[in-house]
């Protein structure tokens, strides 16, 4: 694939990437006791529909326990279900010891709550962590969370408060045992939106946020979020993300309203751009995400993804670019291989999210296809230049269309995991690749189901749906199925079936 030199694209009409405003943010005495405050979010509008691929290639993290029936990852595990508000955002991260933490922003008529749930057994069971939670009124898309290195690491949370008492962008660091914490006001007044965080194994933390007038800023903290240095980057921005790698190289990505993808590299402690790449799509684009692998700058792999609109066919798909030399050169924008399959007119893939945590071993990706059955799609790669076309359609329950799912990696699982909200529900679900359940296996191995070639035989009344929600079979007896992915719904639950 042709690689373009950094800065080879035409310049944008918007403000050039620069250092117009910068400064250190110091903690004030009155801002340090916010342990009972939290985050808010307003749901986004729903999106479009999809048509599943005719076949799915099984990749490394999708290996079934037996063939040809595969339950595709585990039966989804419920994290939380209590009716205490409306879920308005999720984020899942893992600690260095493999414990998994899921944050769920619950919005209510009173105070919002950023719930934090912990699993020490790879997601099988979840326990709520009140000592790590935050309460208060927060803005739409108003939080992010990451975990640093160490045996009792810092959890870093950024919160976009919108209340009379706390009307500003704050960051909090708290040890996972809940014994030490600090709060810092990053930006005064409620003029910010969509904060993003990233941390590396040196506890260098970076932040990106937008303002109400669509300006974009990035910042960094070299003292574990006790003080922040901020720089103004650009204007007319509608989506952004940020990532800091192990060697201190940072990647700040954002989309301007002229459908230009900006990729800015910087090297901490400096926030100044060391290189700037601009890719002009010529279409409506949104929802950008970036992640970088470990390794030396000269050979570092980086992937950037975003949603791209094709007006002629009224479809949204995922496009991407990559670098294998730390951002010195970038590939031309192209269709993202894991999601490059036929979809119907009016269909759309939204909310692409990339992850490569400092304790991870590969890139992981998740996106949402929206239809009568809103589908969460997962993929992973160890090489930014060689994303496979394999993918997993993993959600057992109809997924939300109002905000992204979250993806990560745990050393306990030696693989990836995803958290998503169920559509129009307080339920938040966890799925992981290593543990197809005995319940699913027993149903398939027993007399109720038999699968041979492309023929499913059942003595149990079932309804068979394609992943776009179409009913393709109903009742008992024998069903011949075309290659594809199906949901087999019955009194005992739901199973997934891949027909090759």
Short description:
By secondary structure, the protein is mostly beta strands. Strand 6 (112-119) and strand 7 form a beta hairpin.
Question: Structural class given helices, strands, pairing?
Answer: mainly beta
Overall shape: it is globular
The fraction of residues in strands falls at over 45%
**Separate helix tally:** 1
The residue ranges in which pLDDT falls below 50 over 5 or more consecutive positions are 1-72, 435-447
Mean pLDDT: 80
Main sheet properties: 5 strands, antiparallel
How many β-strand runs? 37
Helix content range = under 10%
In spatial order, strands of the major sheet run 2-16-15-14-13
Instruction: Supply Rg.
Output: 22 Å
Which characteristics define this entry?
49% strand; single chain; mainly beta; 500 residues; 2% helix; 1 helix
Detailed description of the structure:
By secondary structure, the chain is mainly beta. It contains one helix and 37 strands. It has one helix at 438-445; strands at residues 4-5, 22-25, 77-80, 86-94, 100-107, 112-119, 127-128, 134-136, 138-147, 154-161, 168-175, 181-188, 192-199, 205-211, 216-221, 228-234, 237-244, 249-256, 260-267, 273-280, 285-292, 302-310, 315-323, 329-330, 334-335, 349-355, 363-369, 375-381, 392-393, 406-410, 415-421, 428-432, 449-452, 455-466, 471-480, 484-490, 493-499. Strand 9 and strand 10 (154-161) form a beta hairpin. It starts with a strand and ends with a strand.
